[in-house]
Design goal:
477 residues; alpha+beta; Transposase Inhibitor Protein From Tn5, Chain A, domain 1; 2 domains; 9-stranded mixed β-sheet; globular
């Protein structure tokens, strides 16, 4: 972020015989010098360019200073760099490096039309706020809010980016389903108290394939986890199958998604299986009494939790349309039993019960880390506008920022010690670099801090990102 010059001196604890003084007179300095790497990712994928195409701009092109591409790029880059709030942009709008990243041909802002905007090349919070709050029915006749987001196009883009990240179609993929609480603190549209989370919240649905985000759907909390999931799955799987007709798909989720309509639909499809948690009940527990006894014996003999896995054929009394395979984990912990159940369409001949539970089902826990990345580091829960639609758009902006950082991780960090780094660590290690920015007639000079400790790693990432021209596919399986 650009500093403002001032003559104020700040005196700190002296170092031996030397005084320590500071003042804001270093010139045009940014704290986000590494953000230029994100522009290399954009060059490779065209993510922001295609994201901007998911908006219909009804403004007069001869009367605007910020294109749709520049507006969405400014918003997404700022999220990736750690600026969560629109208020931040009233200071960020003076940053020539961010202006360079966004594609402003005059990164100093000296060519702005209004005198009060001179030196501010980027859009302020009010302009970005109008972008978020544009209603779907807006037309060129509206006065201010004229840039309409197209949710269906954004949904399709997230899946397209996932498909393009593979050189060859994988034989099998796993789609992870999960929901989380998005606590709200005002009178937002769709406000509802959720008893499980004990607060007013939204209940967004996420669908991931590994690190890849395929769906981020904001929902109200007055429905269960599985509400509206089947249409999302049908849309995503149809789009995947249009490119990979032979891929086998496994749906994985907790017991909130264990609904007959979802399981029956999977069973009617070719090569679409499911693996869902199943809430325990007295009937299920009675079916594994003997197995639980053996687990208890194992615990008493060894002093460590005993586990026995059992295969069951089970059907609910009235909610399921057919009998299904259930794998039971009869486990005895210190002083108490701990039975767990999963239901699946994967046949016993293909996957044994223990591996199905311990390796396949328990592997879904990694998805929770991806959701935490979005909420903690990319502000997916910053849904504080009054309107539900604009809060969904904020979730989209966060999602695109996540996809951008994941692409940086995939394209630039694969094979390095940072290949598993979370978005917050990538930002701290690679993007938050102090730099002096100087704009001349022919160049934008970015003098990165000489004391930056990971210069070799930065150079390595840069070289990887520069390897190809245009959208480049990598194997992300």
């Amino acid at each position: 972020m650009t500093t403002q010059c001032t003559t104020r001196d700040f005196l700190f604890e002296p170092l031996a015989h030397r005084s320590v003084e500071a003042r804001f007179d270093g010139g045009t300095i940014t704290s986000d010098g590494g953000g230029l790497l994100l522009t290399e990712v954009e060059r490779r994928l065209g993510l922001l360019r295609r994201f901007a195409q998911c908006f219909t701009d009804h403004r007069d092109p001869d009367a605007i200073e910020h294109t749709t591409l520049q507006l969405v790029s400014q918003r997404v880059y700022a999220l990736a760099l750690g600026y969560e709030d629109l208020n931040d942009h009233d200071v960020l709008r003076t940053d020539p490096l961010l202006a360079t990243m966004v594609g402003k041909t005059d990164p100093t802002g000296q060519d702005r039309v209004r005198e009060q905007d001179k030196g501010k090349p980027l859009a302020g919070k009010s302009t970005l706020n109008r972008l978020e709050l544009t209603p779907p029915e807006a037309t060129a006749a509206d006065r201010y809010k004229k840039i309409v987001a197209l949710p269906e196009a954004i949904d399709r883009l997230l899946v397209d980016i996932f498909l393009e990240a593979h050189i060859t179609p994988p034989a099998q993929i796993t789609l992870d389903l999960d929901v989380t609480d998005d606590i709200i603190h005002g009178q937002q549209e769709g406000r509802f108290f959720h008893g499980y989370y004990g607060d007013y919240c939204y209940l967004p649905l996420y669908i991931f394939c590994g690190d890849h985000l395929l769906c981020a759907r904001l929902r109200t909390a007055d429905h269960g986890a599985a509400d509206g999931v089947l249409p999302e799955l049908q849309r995503i799987i149809a789009q995947i199958r249009a490119v990979w007709p032979q891929v086998r798909i496994l749906l994985r989720g907790d017991s909130g998604f264990c609904r007959d309509e979802i399981m029956s639909w999977c069973e009617d499809q070719k090569d679409v299986d499911y693996l869902f948690g199943l809430a325990k009940n007295s009937r299920l527990e009675a079916m594994i009494e003997r197995d639980m006894m053996w687990a208890h014996v194992a615990y008493l003999q060894n002093g460590i939790p005993g586990r026995v896995f059992a295969e069951l054929c089970y059907r609910t009394l009235d909610s399921w349309s057919r009998e299904r395979r259930v794998v039971a984990k009869a486990e005895y912990l210190s002083k108490r039993p701990n039975p767990r159940f999963v239901v699946t369409s994967v046949p016993t001949s293909e996957r044994a019960g223990r591996a199905l539970y311990e390796e396949d089902y328990c592997g879904r826990g990694d998805m929770e880390n991806r959701i935490k990345e979005q909420q903690l580091w990319l502000f997916a829960d910053r849904t504080s506008t009054e309107l539900f639609r604009s809060n969904q758009l904020r979730l989209y902006f966060s999602s695109v920022a996540y996809v951008l950082l994941c692409a940086l991780r995939r394209l630039g960090l694969a094979g390095t010690a940072w290949q598993g780094a979370q978005c917050g660590s990538i930002r701290l290690w690679l993007l938050k670099i102090g730099a002096l920015v100087r704009v001349t007639v022919r160049r934008v000079w970015v003098a990165l801090a000489s004391s930056y400790p990971w210069q070799d790693r930065f150079a390595q990432v840069y070289a990887r990102l520069r390897q190809g021209q245009g959208p480049t596919l990598v194997d992300a399986t």
